[in-house]
């Protein structure tokens, strides 16, 4: 996409050249937008510039149309305040994962927030830094924009233009709605995943060797940066504590029922809690924002070069659209498992077609 096709008008200045900031820069640069970069670390900003996320801002650069603050949550309010003072004619947004705390802090300082629009792209990776940045990081991901009745239409339009140029899906929320929502779908899963993974520390190597996809799925995000999450959870502590308290009640009820499953009603209590999990999973949006459920086929794949490419090619020849793919290796064996999600109505045809081509499915 060239500059004429970009919705974003004017230059964009990114403060904080880590994963999110550099990804914003990479995505906008692909669309011809002039992006300047700033970071407390000269090495970080130079690295982001080397990767093509923009150029290091100089004193001679004119004021940008938009400033994107992509700094850690504990300094977001300070950086937003400085950006508003340094660029009084520019719109300022931030991409912090909490929205209420920075807004309340800025309001308590008596700062004019007319040109400030809080936002949050629901995107990230397990590891941060400019080296992990991607131009397509925000593609098809929700981008929450928090406005109030004083937000000028042109300021809102500029923030929305950047989100749309980066391929995101716009959602409007109040800061309170945002923080409660991310507490449920992002912050609580992080805590649960980390605590579960912590149970692996004292485990024997023999036990760890039995790990399969279930453990990998539930602990994948446990490798996230603890320092960053201390900041995020501290800033959004009230919704997260409320959710943890509710989860603790469920865990206690489950443990009590499991303690004596022969007791009257115990099995039903266990089943009800597990069934509630089924209903919850069904509500998670799937491909293209749909909650449609898919059928998963497990295909045995020899651990040799080119086998996955061959599998995908032959699925295409069968006219099967693969909705999702997950790979797992079998410890100690020269074989792997490709878990392929397809629409239920084509599952049988996929199994038969793959079998005719020599593939084994489970």
Automatic annotation (TrEMBL):
One of its GO terms (molecular function) is prephenate dehydrogenase (NAD+) activity. Pathway: Amino-acid biosynthesis; L-tyrosine biosynthesis; (4-hydroxyphenyl)pyruvate from prephenate (NAD(+) route): step 1/1. Its EC number is 1.3.1.12. Keywords: Amino-acid biosynthesis, Aromatic amino acid biosynthesis, NAD, Oxidoreductase, Tyrosine biosynthesis. Residues 296-362 form the ACT domain. Residues 10-288 form the Prephenate/arogenate dehydrogenase domain. It catalyses: prephenate + NAD(+) = 3-(4-hydroxyphenyl)pyruvate + CO2 + NADH. Pfam families: PDH_C (PF20463), PDH_N (PF02153). InterPro entries: 6-PGluconate_DH-like_C_sf (IPR008927), ACT-like_dom_sf (IPR045865), ACT_dom (IPR002912), NAD(P)-bd_dom_sf (IPR036291), PDH_C (IPR046825), PDH_N (IPR046826), Preph/Arog_dehydrog (IPR050812), Prephen_DH (IPR003099). The keyword Transcription does not apply. It is an enzyme of class 1 (oxidoreductase). Belongs to the prephenate/arogenate dehydrogenase family. PANTHER family: PREPHENATE DEHYDROGENASE, PREPHENATE DEHYDROGENASE [NADP(+)]. This is Prephenate dehydrogenase.
């Amino acid at each position: 996409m060239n500059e004429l096709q970009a919705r974003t008008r004017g230059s964009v200045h990114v403060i904080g050249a880590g994963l999110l900031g550099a990804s914003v820069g990479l995505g906008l640069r692909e669309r011809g937008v002039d992006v300047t970069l700033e970071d407390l670390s000269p090495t970080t900003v130079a690295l982001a510039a080397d990767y093509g996320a923009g150029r290091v801002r100089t004193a001679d650069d004119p004021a940008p149309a938009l400033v994107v603050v992509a700094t850690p949550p504990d300094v977001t309010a300070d950086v937003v305040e400085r950006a508003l003072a340094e660029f009084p004619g520019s719109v300022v947004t931030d991409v912090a994962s909490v929205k209420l705390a920075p807004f309340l802090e800025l309001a308590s300082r008596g700062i004019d927030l007319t040109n400030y629009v809080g936002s949050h792209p629901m995107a990230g990776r397990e590891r941060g830094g400019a080296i992990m940045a991607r131009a397509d990081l925000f593609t098809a991901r929700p981008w929450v924009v928090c406005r109030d009745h004083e937000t000028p239409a042109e300021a809102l339009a500029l923030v929305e233009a950047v989100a749309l140029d980066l391929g995101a899906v716009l959602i409007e929320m109040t800061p309170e709605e945002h923080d409660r929502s991310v507490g449920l779908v992002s912050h609580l899963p992080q805590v649960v995943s980390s605590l579960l993974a912590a149970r692996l520390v004292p485990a024997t190597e023999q036990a760890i060797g039995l790990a399969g996809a279930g453990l990998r799925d539930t602990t994948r995000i446990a490798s996230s940066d603890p320092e960053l999450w201390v900041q995020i959870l501290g800033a959004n502590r009230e919704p997260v504590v409320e959710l943890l308290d509710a989860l603790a009640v469920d865990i206690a009820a489950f443990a009590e029922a499991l303690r004596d499953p022969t007791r009257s009603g115990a099995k039903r209590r266990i089943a009800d809690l597990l069934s509630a999990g089924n209903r919850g999973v069904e509500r998670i949006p799937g491909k293209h924002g749909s909650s449609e459920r898919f059928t998963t086929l497990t295909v045995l794949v020899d651990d040799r070069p080119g086998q996955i490419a061959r599998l995908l090619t032959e699925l295409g020849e069968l006219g099967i659209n693969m909705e999702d793919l997950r790979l797992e290796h079998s410890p100690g064996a020269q074989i792997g498992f490709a878990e392929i999600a397809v629409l239920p109505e084509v599952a049988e045809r996929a199994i038969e077609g793959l079998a005719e081509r020599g593939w084994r499915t489970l």
